[in-house]
């Protein structure tokens, strides 16, 4: 060791010893002084001399130390006095009449109900895990309670929750992703008007699910709501897990109030923009909707325009009344399919309503806001548009901007440019916007519901069909603008017909030709009929669907097939043919379905478990000669397409996905009125399935009918 280091340690040790000597000397001097002045007389005289400095036996240092001692003592006594006074406060006497009255008087403000706990932050809502070995059994699903936050943040989901991770690994090894959903009923005010809603983890809209193709999703649902419920994974193939599709009465019984269920499935052979929602009644319009994004290793390759940001924008019509109050009115006598008209619209769950315009409503818009999205200038940005409405078609634009459509319902397409998007219920489009317009730094994003398609027999005087958001040229971390944009609207009228965007110019990539010929052809007439007791109901051919919440069609068919080993016999035994129309297709076939609308309303048609080729859409009646001009080279493939009023649509599918799949109108009012049928494909494989026990147990619970559509029998005899 160096001499310098040794010297330093020695010097430090000497200093410590000197400090200890000083402390000992001071203690001894103080004790000696106090012992000399122990008697009153000596203390009095000594104290006087000490103050005057006349005592030769008391050093100056001793006087200073004693002065500090008595000063500290005095301050301590005063501190206790002040503390006691503060504790008593204005009530100087414990028997004071005013104080007793104050103690007995109840609080002027009623106790406030604690807001629901918000969900964990986005990155914590799912936890990636390494794939578990096949030999290890899965643990029994247990609903995970939402952790109690240290400070409530309210029900409004931050807009940044729908901004996708820019560092997402598209090539990651497939993994299992767990989500924990706690469903509850809460009174909230998205646009300022209070109403009951059904929320997941106490926030609205529901959480983003983000995964890769090949990942396994396990969504643990705890239903703490007052009604039974389910979750449907819109657009997912559910190949090999048909019982996880979430369709009430078809593939499962609902999750009863107080019950729980785990949806467990693997993403196979698809990627893109999807969403999930309840399939019980109209619960989707009450808040049970969320985005589901699937990434692919070929995502950047198939998206021909590279982009710097990627986000979800969900558009929905919005009702100030609970769907459970509106649905019985819609299904009642003499309504003639006049759907309830919404009050307004939301973008990602946000909008602002002027409370003075709805004086009969409980309203507080102080925390409501107009959505604003920061897009950095001179870059490309992907906007994944999802229409989660119960009924409304939207027309969407960004002032002074064109955009490229690059995806339709999970199908990548070559970029095709538009300045206005028409999107019907349940459809999805990806738009790529370039922020290079120099006329301003912020622009209106305008969305308009096509209200000409709404009922004019029962109009809603409170309807506001337009909703705006702000697109601002700023980095994501920058603060939002506080002044409205001055951008210019496009000088063109809104098309007042509910039908699809002309998608003939959209070219899917990679190219997938449709089979040149169909093995089977099926005609489906789509209509609303006024039957007994003047009830207007939706029909596919001669059948109006009524779900059996106590027994799923899938379970009945599997059980029947097990005893007959023959598809037709099992189907005849399993299905209620007056209310459960089933199109049975054996083997892998190419099937054409021509849907002819003999009703004035439009119907966005959704097929579960498949994407179909769109061979044609048009107005009027289908002309058989149209078959001669069909282009099967690379037609658009999607899962939801519009059947316009008094129009037709021809779709082609290849029945290679075994299951019992719903085909229905995605206007929620129409599907609840019966506009639904099913496709049974590869029934021999379906019949051989062994359904999970927890899936079967759902049908044994109590309260399954809560939240479902009312039975027609409640209207019998009432024709008023």
TrEMBL record:
Residues 1-10 have a biased composition (Polar residues). Residues 1-40, 100-166 are annotated as: Disordered. Residues 14-31 have a biased composition (Acidic residues). GO terms for molecular function: copper ion binding; oxidoreductase activity. PROSITE patterns: MULTICOPPER_OXIDASE1, MULTICOPPER_OXIDASE2. Residues 183-298, 310-450, 573-682 form the Plastocyanin-like domain. It holds the Pfam family Cu-oxidase_3. Keywords: Copper, Membrane, Metal-binding, Oxidoreductase, Transmembrane, Transmembrane helix. It comes from the Eukaryota. Gene3D superfamilies: Cupredoxins - blue copper proteins. The chain crosses the membrane at residues 66-89. Residues 108-122, 138-150 have a biased composition (Pro residues). Belongs to the multicopper oxidase family. This is Multicopper oxidase. It comes from Scytalidium lignicola.
């Amino acid at each position: 060791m160096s001499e310098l280091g040794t010297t330093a340690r020695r010097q430090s040790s000497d200093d410590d010893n000197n400090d200890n000597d000083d402390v000992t000397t001071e203690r001894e001097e103080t004790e000696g002084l106090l012992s000399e002045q122990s008697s009153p007389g000596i203390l009095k005289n000594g104290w006087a001399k000490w103050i005057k400095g006349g005592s030769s036996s008391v050093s100056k240092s001793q006087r200073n130390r004693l002065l500090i001692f008595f000063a500290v003592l005095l301050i301590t006594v005063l501190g206790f006095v002040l503390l006691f006074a503060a504790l008593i406060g204005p009530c100087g006497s414990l028997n004071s009449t005013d104080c007793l009255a104050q103690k007995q008087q109840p609080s002027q403000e009623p106790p406030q109900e604690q807001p629901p706990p918000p969900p964990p932050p986005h990155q914590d809502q799912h936890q990636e895990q390494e794939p578990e070995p096949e030999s290890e059994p899965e643990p029994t699903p247990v609903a995970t309670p939402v952790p109690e936050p240290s400070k409530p943040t309210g029900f409004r989901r931050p807009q940044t929750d729908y901004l996708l991770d820019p560092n997402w690994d598209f090539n990651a090894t497939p993994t299992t992703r767990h989500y924990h959903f706690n469903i509850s009923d809460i009174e909230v005010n998205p646009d300022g008007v209070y109403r009951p809603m059904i929320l997941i983890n106490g926030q609205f809209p529901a959480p983003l699910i983000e995964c890769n193709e090949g990942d396994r999703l396990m969504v643990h649902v705890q239903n703490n709501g007052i009604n039974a419920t389910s979750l449907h994974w819109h657009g997912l193939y559910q190949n090999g897990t048909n019982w996880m599709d979430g369709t009430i009465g078809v593939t499962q019984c609902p999750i009863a109030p107080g019950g729980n269920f785990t949806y467990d499935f693997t993403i196979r052979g698809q990627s893109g923009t999807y969403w999930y929602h309840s399939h019980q009644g109209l619960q989707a319009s009450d808040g049970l909707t969320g985005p589901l994004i699937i990434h692919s290793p070929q995502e950047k390759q198939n998206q021909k325009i590279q982009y710097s940001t990627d986000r979800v924008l969900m558009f929905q019509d919005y009702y100030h009344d609970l769907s459970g109050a509106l649905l019985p009115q819609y299904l009642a006598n003499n309504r003639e399919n006049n759907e309830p008209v919404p009050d307004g619209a939301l973008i990602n769950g946000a909008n602002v309503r002027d409370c003075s315009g709805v004086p009969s409503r409980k309203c507080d818009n102080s925390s409501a806001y107009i959505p604003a999205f920061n897009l950095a200038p001179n870059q490309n940005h992907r906007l994944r548009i999802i229409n989660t409405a119960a009924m409304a078609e939207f027309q969407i634009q960004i002032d002074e901007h064109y955009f490229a459509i690059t995806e339709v319902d999970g199908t990548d397409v070559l970029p095709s440019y538009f300045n206005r998007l028409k999107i019907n219920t349940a459809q999805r489009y990806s738009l790529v916007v370039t922020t290079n317009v120099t006329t301003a730094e912020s622009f209106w994003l305008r969305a308009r519901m096509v209200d000409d398609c709404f009922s004019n027999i029962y109009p809603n005087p409170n309807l506001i069909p337009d909703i705006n958001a702000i697109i601002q040229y700023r980095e994501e971390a920058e603060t939002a603008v506080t002044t409205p944009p001055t951008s210019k609207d496009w000088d063109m009228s809104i098309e007042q017909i509910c039908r699809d965007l002309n998608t003939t110019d959209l070219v899917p990539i990679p190219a997938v030709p449709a089979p040149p010929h169909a093995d089977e052809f099926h005609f489906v007439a789509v209509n609303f009929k006024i039957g007994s007791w003047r009830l207007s109901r939706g029909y596919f051919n001669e059948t109006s669907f009524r779900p059996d919440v106590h027994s799923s069609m899938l379970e009945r068919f599997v059980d029947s097939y097990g005893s007959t080993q023959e598809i037709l016999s099992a189907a005849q035994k399993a299905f209620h043919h007056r209310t459960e129309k089933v199109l049975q297709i054996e083997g892998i076939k190419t099937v054409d379905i021509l849907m002819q609308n003999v009703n004035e309303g439009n119907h966005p048609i959704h097929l579960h478990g498949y994407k179909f080729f769109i061979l044609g859409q048009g107005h009027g009646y289908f002309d058989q000669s149209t078959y001669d001009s069909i282009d099967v080279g690379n037609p658009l493939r999607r899962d939801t397409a519009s059947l316009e009023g008094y129009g037709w649509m021809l779709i082609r599918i290849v029945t290679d996905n075994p299951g019992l799949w719903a085909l229905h109108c995605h206007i929620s009012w129409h599907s609840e009125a019966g506009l639904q049928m099913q496709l049974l494909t590869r029934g021999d494989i379906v019949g051989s399935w062994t359904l999970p026990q927890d899936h079967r147990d759902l049908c044994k619970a109590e309260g399954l009918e809560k939240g479902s559509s009312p039975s027609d029998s409640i209207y019998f005899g009432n024709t008023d």
